[in-house]
Write a structure and sequence with these properties.
- With 349 residues, this protein is α/β, with parallel strands linked by helices.
- Helices cover 38% and strands 14% of the residues.
- The strands form 2 sheets. The chain has an 8-stranded parallel β-barrel, surrounded by 6 helices.
- A hairpin with a 7-residue loop joins strand 8 and strand 9.
- Helix 2 packs across helix 3, helix 3 runs parallel beside helix 5 and helix 5 crosses helix 6.
């Protein structure tokens, strides 16, 4: 039998992140992304099982009442899709605040998580959301964090713990997505330090994006934690494999959510988004990852056994040009890659 787990989801936030600001391209509406997801087909007619959501305007307001949440759930169900993980709008410009900021900023951060958790609970009770957590980050830059690394990590951890208690009240868990742009989360080692400081296993974990996690090996914003040599020759795959496995081994015990992605090894920012890892198309010849092999570093333990921890996995393709995102062939290719990941590292239920 073909593996049917983990379920295959598509992310909705690439239609918003880096879009609609300054010289950025227009935001892509939720319905357009749902339609492209619904209509994608893998090599043998496979379909996406669901979507992971951006809980912010113009997609879905974090302040949605129960009637609005019900309408959204019914609308997504009309596309034949389930719902998985959420992105909570915890940043200052979206109504939140820095996790290491003053008392008011940290309160706003927690409030946004509490609202997201309430929506998550309702969608689970409606039956449309069988899996998924709530994605957060430190909502602060590396430069600000670096003024007091130990003290600021402690503050971030305190905020995460308070947010986690709010999430627990609704039966939810949090996943912190480490990226080179987030203070206290800009390296594989700092992510481990932060999660150990939070010390709420099973409630606060890591969201592993294949592309962002690969950037840790190059030491962007954290030279002391670099694993690949300067002027690394990408033709030497053994060095990349060893470095990437070290990152995965360190963070896998904390990983509760997983993004399949590809990366060309460069950094990029657009709109209001700080420079971070450059996602590239699954077919990009400059992609540095072996998607199927390197996905296994996260989905299998250090003995090669399936962890089966992630009930669904999601594709993340932030900052693709709109012309790419609105081309159905893009999503057919992505789905094809995700099917291969599930064939190699999935299971049957």
């Amino acid at each position: 039998m073909e593996n049917n787990y983990p379920r295959l989801h598509n992310a909705m936030w690439p239609g918003v992140v880096g879009k609609g600001s300054g010289d950025g391209e227009p935001i892509i509406g939720l319905d357009t992304l749902l339609m492209l997801t619904r209509d994608a087909r893998g090599p043998n007619g496979e379909k996406f099982d669901g979507v992971d959501l951006w809980l912010a305007d113009p997609h879905i307001s974090i302040d949605s009442d129960t009637d609005a949440v019900k309408r959204v759930a019914d609308h997504i169900a009309g596309y034949g899709l389930a719902v998985g993980s959420f992105v909570a709008p915890i940043w200052g410009g979206a109504g939140g605040g820095s996790a290491m900021g003053d008392a008011e900023e940290r309160k706003r951060f927690v409030t946004q998580v509490r609202k997201a958790a309430a929506i998550g609970q309702q969608m689970r009770e409606l039956g449309i959301r069988p899996t998924g957590g709530i994605r957060i980050d430190s909502s602060t830059g590396v430069e600000a964090w670096d003024k007091d690394p130990k003290g600021n990590t402690k503050k971030i951890a305190e905020t995460f713990r308070e947010a986690a208690r709010a999430a627990q009240d609704h039966g939810e868990f949090l996943v912190a997505e480490g990226e080179i742009c987030w203070g206290g989360m800009q390296s594989w080692r700092e992510n481990v330090n932060l999660l150990e400081e939070v010390d709420m296993p099973g409630v606060v974990g890591y969201q592993a994006d294949m592309a962002h996690s690969m950037l840790f090996t190059l030491g962007y914003n954290a030279e002391k934690d670099r694993l690949l040599p300067e002027n690394y020759d990408w033709k030497d795959r053994s060095l990349l494999d060893a470095a990437y496995r070290k990152v995965a081994d360190a963070l896998r015990p904390w990983t509760y959510d997983f993004h399949v992605a590809q990366n060309d090894g460069s950094v990029f920012g657009s709109g209001d988004h700080e420079k971070t890892g450059r996602h590239c198309q699954v077919t990009d010849p400059n992609g540095k990852l072996d998607i199927v092999k390197h996905a296994g570093y996260w989905l299998r333990d250090d003995h090669g056994n399936l962890t089966r921890r992630m009930r669904h996995i999601c594709w993340d393709g932030c900052m693709f040009p709109n012309a790419v995102m609105e081309d159905q062939k893009t999503w057919d290719a992505i789905l094809g890659a995700m099917v291969k990941v599930r064939q190699a590292h999935g299971w049957v239920e």
